[in-house]
From TrEMBL:
Enzyme Commission code: 1.1.1.18
UniProt xrefs under InterPro entries: Gfo/Idh/MocA-like_OxRdtase_N (IPR000683), GFO_IDH_MocA-like_dom (IPR055170), Myo_inos_IolG (IPR030827), NAD(P)-bd_dom_sf (IPR036291)
Record-annotated Gfo/Idh/MocA-like oxidoreductase N-terminal domain positions: 5-123
Name of the gene this protein is made from: iolG
Keywords: Oxidoreductase
Family indicated by similarity: Belongs to the Gfo/Idh/MocA family.
All residue ranges annotated as the GFO/IDH/MocA-like oxidoreductase domain in the record: 131-251
MF terms (GO), sorted A to Z: inositol 2-dehydrogenase (NAD+) activity
Name used for this protein in its record: Inositol 2-dehydrogenase
Amino acid sequence: MFMLQVGIIGAGRIGKLHADHIQHMRNVRVRAISDVYIAGLDTWASEMGIPVVTSDYRDLLNDPEIEAVFICSPTSTHAAIIKEAAQAGKHIFCEKPVSFSVDTTERALEAVKKAGVKMQVGFNRRFDHNFKKARDVVQAGKIGAPHLLRITSRDPEPPPAEYISKSGGLFMDMTIHDFDMARYVMQSEVVEVYAQGANLIDPQIGELNDIDTAVVNLRFANGALGIIENSRKAVYGYDQRLEAFGSEGCVTTNNDRASTAIVATADGVQMDKPLYFFLERYTQAYIQEVEDFVRAILHDGPIVCDANDGLQAERIARAAKESLLSGRPVKLEHESAPMQHQ
Ligand SMILES: NC(=O)c1ccc[n+]([C@@H]2O[C@H](COP(=O)([O-])OP(=O)(O)OC[C@H]3O[C@@H](n4cnc5c(N)ncnc54)[C@H](O)[C@@H]3O)[C@@H](O)[C@H]2O)c1
């Protein structure tokens, strides 16, 4: 018998990915998976060794053997499921973002707090070996007092129009990972945001009132400044880098590639392109975030990326949207703006 049994809600891209990783782990197994569309899911689940398939996620919440659920359904469903899962006493791993509205997220998180269950938000990049190292370097004081942060975050190709229309917009869907990364590396809250955006890649994205290119300036509570730049289309692959600069130095991370070989000939110098997209680049991070969540439950340990982290990233995304629409910087209030704990 495995030490922890979990349920997966939503058997789409990310739900199946987490299920696959969990089935290869030592101390945890997926006991049940639910999706509103279960045609063909039985066969997949049986190949994965998942005994229960259901179209109603409440079956997972009512199962006493299941101690935690992974909410991997569309964002619009997260908040309601979080509340029910918390009331059922299940620990919660929720994919990002928690919801499209800060108020909705706050209400869902109240239910989590009241129930006293653990909740982790799926900001997988915190668990990426490169970004984790950058954070550790900053935390250890090796670059001195942080002054500047630069995050480059570009996708290899834009998602289909149907996805864009339900995504919550570039800031809530894509930049939200970068907003979390900014807080994580700088260990300071964002207190001001100024965002500019453009539609340069796909006119359909503009027709859907979204942008595909953005620059976001940040001011942190510790006085440091940051800049995030996004594109939905980098022809050379997934471009995910950052640099943190401070009074005593600087830490830079580069893209992961299929190999580190550099081929130099009379024609020029070549290396492999960055790994194609998030599924390739962040495999290790997706595994690590689940292992950390499982460990936190089994050993009653801290959650590295908790419900408040999910909320704060959404607050920054909302402020960025407000800034984009108004053309002005937007301030964010914090009761206190402490350094983060983990
Ligand atoms: N952390 C990451 O890197 C990352 C990557 C991709 C997606 N996501 C997030 O994960 C979530 C899902 O995204 P996806 O790309 O896997 O979407 P998807 O459309 O591939 O999968 C979602 C699945 O949920 C099912 N579903 C809908 N309502 C449901 C319900 N009430 N109960 C159970 N299942 C239900 C759908 O039928 C679908 O199969 C989104 O919130 C998204 O933002 C995170």
